[in-house]
Specification:
two-stranded antiparallel ribbon; 1% strand; 660 residues; 4 strands; mainly alpha; globular; two-stranded antiparallel sheet
């Protein structure tokens, strides 16, 4: 069924009250079931699971993946099957919409864990207690919800802004529930089969799972004498290096540096194939170019020059050159410069994003004597007017008490956070791009200019910016399909809060288990956060900016400063080319910078995944054909299956290794 919407002329000429009355009488579905016990529970459980996969992918790539469409498909398939089995009635379209909103909210709770909070622990070498993490993240997230609702009335009800990602979810929901159910079930089967096959593959290449199966489970039979479990190597080149040792074969080197020291490994990571498919060929190619320039060319040159060296740890142990050392000692600086400068240039080229501030706070209300038709289903504005000051004070208190940020700086940062949240939400409304990373750097540099001595003074307020802004923008993006389908916004707000707790309760214990495991003495160290498996590129970027603020550029090698200048110029030129060509220029400076920080093996696999889907999309261009349905329409479910199957088994493998 075609979704009804106002014409451009009606949007321009009608008052907001007229638009609200049209929506209430034409679109609103009344008391159709929405935030029910089962939709809340389904969203809570799905949100926790999908948030865990988002944490896994964020720790590996620094990319925050949206989980709303995945939740839509899974919930649709689950209750469709239960309905046919006469176990439960089918979900209503609004119950499913509420479920995806809860799951989406949970997924974005991983943002500070893979960025600002991890960076804080790396810089200060302190471990944040779990309850402080949960309290601070919850306060910031609820503050984002409270800030969002005055903007909802302007951006969604009045301006009718597109929110492309949210609109896509609304269109998918409408097609599932008013079109052929077989289409939705086909996508659900694609996701399920892909996730199952990926999970089996991930299990075979996982040392922990194979150890558990072969030694713990099968030890009573033929495997009783097994002392070391057999498993396939995820790094395919391991087989060659084993043969090279045995038969004295050639070890690949660049300027005398071993490929393995440079991080140039050949890996078949199913999750990265899926992430690449979701990225698209342009972004994935930019990422691969960044990693190629850095690790094939610049890193060997800097090692030869002596700007990247082996060093002695505080414990007196020799730390050999590795990918992590290359990034920390030299590459981080030009990679971060590419991302920050590229983001800011791109942001500055979109003045319509900034005008949202004035639309929210300066435009005169159209209020008149007519009764508001939405008074019983909208979140009352007084909730925001009362709640924002209360949660702002709570946020400043938590920032001061937990992280020793001075009270004055905690309060000074709040107006900046509010303004940047409006900009971020307006960006999400127009483009589905939420520039939380680049905008939070404005807070980070501003606070750092006031207090250079304390890293927390810039990291934590900037992290608060990212968390508040992401929750405000994501909530409105999730409410957009509800507006299209006639849902009660008040119930979606409650659903978003449920998702906040779902994501926090799922991800924080998992973060401790995976990235902060205790040593033999029961002590935890921030040094375990970043590893060869989990690069934490987001946290590394935040850490790099914090250290640059604290130390200044004078502490860097001259080659690193020169590389930063070249990177800034290159990022500006690339983004200007993208602006001039209206997005047709194929490179992205932010993605090139990301390729510098990510492991090269992950970048290559993501590019390979993007290449496969791009090539198959070029071959199958006719809608309705099997190839088109599988490779084009099925791209997102397949990629979601690759990511979720690999991530869930990968998380299980890490837990097994910690426990046994």
């Amino acid at each position: 069924m075609a979704l009804q919407q106002l014409s451009d002329e009606q949007i321009r000429n009608w008052t907001r009250e007229e638009k609200d009355q049209w929506w209430f009488s034409t679109i609103y579905r009344g008391d159709m079931a929405q935030l029910t016990l089962r939709s809340a529970l389904t969203g809570f459980l799905l949100g926790g699971i999908l948030a865990a996969t988002a944490l896994y992918i964020g720790a590996k790539t620094g990319i925050t993946i949206g989980v709303n469409l995945t939740a839509v498909i899974i919930a649709f398939a689950l209750f469709n099957i239960l309905s046919k089995a006469r176990i439960a009635s089918d979900f209503t379209i609004l119950e499913n919409n509420c479920t995806q909103s809860i799951a989406s909210s949970a997924g974005y709770m991983t943002v500070p864990l893979t960025a600002s909070l991890s960076a804080y622990m790396l810089v200060t070498n302190t471990i944040i207690p779990w309850w402080q993490m949960l309290t601070w993240m919850t306060i910031c997230s609820i503050l984002g919800v409270l800030i969002a609702f005055p903007m909802k009335r302007r951006f969604i009800n009045d301006e009718q802004l597109p929110f492309p990602e949210g609109r896509a979810a609304g269109v998918v929901l409408d097609s599932l529930y008013t079109g052929e159910a077989s289409t939705g079930m086909y996508k659900a089967r694609l996701l399920a089969v892909t996730a199952t096959l990926t999970g089996l593959y991930q299990m075979i290449i996982s040392d922990g799972w194979m150890k558990l199966i072969q030694i713990k489970i099968l030890s009573m039979d033929a495997w009783a004498g097994v002392k070391q479990a057999w498993y396939l190597h995820e790094r395919i080149d391991t087989y060659y290096y084993n043969l090279a040792v045995k038969y004295d074969l050639l070890i690949p080197k660049i300027l005398g540096v071993d490929f393995r020291a440079l991080g140039l490994r050949l890996t078949l990571d199913a999750a990265m194939l899926g992430v690449g498919g979701l990225m698209g060929i342009r972004v994935a190619t930019s990422v691969f170019i960044g990693t190629a320039i850095n690790f094939f060319l610049l890193a060997p040159l800097m090692i030869q020059r002596g700007d990247i060296v082996e060093r002695i740890s505080p414990a007196g142990k020799l730390i050999p050159i590795s990918r992590i050392e290359i990034v920390n000692q030299w590459s981080l600086w030009w990679g971060v410069t590419m991302m920050v400068v590229g983001s800011l240039v791109s942001l500055a080229a979109k003045p319509d994003i900034f005008t949202g501030i004035f639309k929210v706070f300066n435009k005169k209300s159209n209020a008149n004597t007519h009764v508001d038709p939405l008074r019983d289903i909208e979140v009352p504005l007084w909730v925001s007017f009362v709640g924002v000051p209360i949660f702002s004070v709570l946020g400043a208190w938590a920032t001061h008490s937990f992280f020793n940020v001075p009270w004055l700086l905690a309060f000074i940062s709040l107006p900046l956070i509010f303004v940047l949240s409006v900009i971020c939400t307006n960006s999400m409304a127009l483009t589905s791009w939420s520039p939380t990373g680049s905008l939070s750097k404005i807070t980070q540099f501003t606070m750092g200019a006031i207090d250079r001595a304390n890293p927390a003074s810039n990291l934590i307020p900037a992290g608060m910016t990212a968390e508040v802004a992401s929750n405000a923008s994501v909530l409105l993006s999730d409410i957009k399909p509800g507006y299209m389908l006639g849902a009660k916004p008040r119930q979606q707000a409650w659903g978003h809060v449920i998702g906040i707790f779902s994501g926090g309760l799922a991800c924080i214990p998992l973060f401790y288990l995976l990235f902060l495991p205790p040593d033999a003495a029961g002590l935890r160290s921030a040094s375990t956060i970043v590893s060869e498996q989990f690069a934490f590129p987001g946290a590394m970027q935040w850490k790099g900016v914090a250290e640059l603020i604290a130390k200044g550029v004078s502490s860097l090698p001259s080659s690193a400063i020169f590389a930063m200048i070249i990177a800034a110029i290159a990022a500006t030129l690339i983004e200007v080319a993208r602006i001039v060509t209206k997005g047709k220029f194929p490179l992205s400076s932010v993605s090139i910078g990301l390729g510098v920080i990510l492991p090269p093996e992950a970048c290559f696999t993501m590019w390979l995944g993007a290449l496969i889907f791009w090539w198959m999309g070029k071959r199958h261009t006719q809608p309705g054909t099997k190839g088109y349905n599988f490779w084009v329409d099925g791209c997102e479910p397949i990629c979601a299956g690759l990511v979720s199957g690999a991530a869930l088994i990968g998380i299980g493998n890490a837990i097994i290794n910690v426990l046994i």
